[in-house]
Amino acid sequence: MVLPPKDHPRYKSLLAREKLVEASDVVANQGLIAHGRGEAFDYLLGEQTCLPALSAIKAASSAILAAKKPVISVNGNVVALAAREIARLSEISGAKVEINLFHRTPERIVGLTKMMKKVGIDALGENADDKIPGLSSERAKCCSDGIGSADVVLVPLEDGDRCEALVKMGKKVITIDLNPLSRTAQTAHITIVDELTRCLPLLSDFVKEKKGVDSFDNKQCLSDVLNYMAERISS
Ligand code: ATP
Ligand code: MG
Description:
Elements: H1 11-22, H2 29-44, H3 51-66, E1 70-74, H4 76-93, E2 96-99, H5 106-118, E3 130-131, H6 137-140, E4 141-142, E5 152-154, H7 160-168, E6 172-176, H8 183-187, E7 190-192, H9 196-208, H10 218-234
Parallel strand pairs: 1-2, 1-5, 5-6, 6-7
Antiparallel strand pairs: 3-4
Residues 34-35, 37-38, 41, 81, 157, 159-160, 176-179, 182-184, 195-196 line the site of adenosine-5'-triphosphate.
């Protein structure tokens, strides 16, 4: 990997791009496009965790703490950018990790399984023996001891169609998505509008300290995020 110069003002952003390019055998090209869309929204947030996002992180912590079978669903972008942060959340919360790909190939599943193994996680995904109803072929595959039987699913950077299918299955769905207008953001029960690697450590800390919130309204939260962005633009 070609490391960007440490004194570059956009060091973190360049490093994230390098990580994704470096993992090009397991990250779909489409994932690079999705990353670019995320970066654009992060500019509107000032590349920091806003207060509404913090309340969503606390709500996510509550949901994970209350879950009987929490599962973290990861794709290529998530593993390439945040394998360690996912491993820490999994260890602290007891949530299983399942590799669940929109552009699923056996090679990508094997590669991502190895990357999670390097950070100490035995991820599910290789033996997908279950299906998410309402989705076609490869996109539907999942594991019966993972997503199939989970009550709470954290699916960062998920596609809107699949997010909706998980909600229809009766799962409590938490997502991380920088675009508050995406179908995923609008469909999930708890949407954390924040950058993946920035919010995961906060979420892990809350779960570790057993902190959360009693009530949370996702529609209100998304509206607060949009107002925050609008105020930043108009000022
Ligand atoms: P939808 O299908 O939900 O309408 P979409 O088709 O625009 O959304 P997808 O490619 O399906 O987008 O999902 C990826 C989402 O993840 C995008 O909304 C993007 O903004 C967001 N995203 C990309 N990179 C990050 C990141 N590092 N942290 C948080 N969110 C990100
Ligand atoms: Mg989509």
